[in-house]
What we know:
Layout: H1 11-19, H2 27-35, E1 40-43, H3 47-53, E2 60-61, H4 67-71, E3 89-92, H5 98-108, E4 115-116, H6 120-126, H7 134-137
Parallel strand pairs: 1-2, 1-3, 3-4
Amino acid sequence: xxxxxxxxxxxxxxxxxxxxxxxxxxxxxxxxxxxxxxxxxxxxxxxxxxxxxxxxxxxxxxxxxxxxxxxxxxxxxxxxxxxxxxxxxxxxxxxxxxxxxxxxxxxxxxxxxxxxxxxxxxxxxxxxxxxxxxxxxxx
Length: 139
């Protein structure tokens, strides 16, 4: 191993490390922040999960492989919602694992208020918060 390489870490350790860089939010806190306009909810689940389980009304759907390009306020492919580096973003995946890595990636782009939803979409749904079918969201 050369001096420029880092020792390998397992995914559990990596998740633990990246999660120390920000405070994660619970479902009801994310709901309130979105309701009051204090946060943008971003659903990164792939289409099959959205079709199966539904979507959160008002959440911006950006699949994981496009996230950084769409939310970088300086990017040429940014979403209209990517208004600045001070935007509070709550990333939502299915169960709250991929969203942690995604939030850490957004921090690297300077989006320091990015966080993720503990337990992901499944926690949102279990909390009885609003969900609509994916087909309804397309109308």
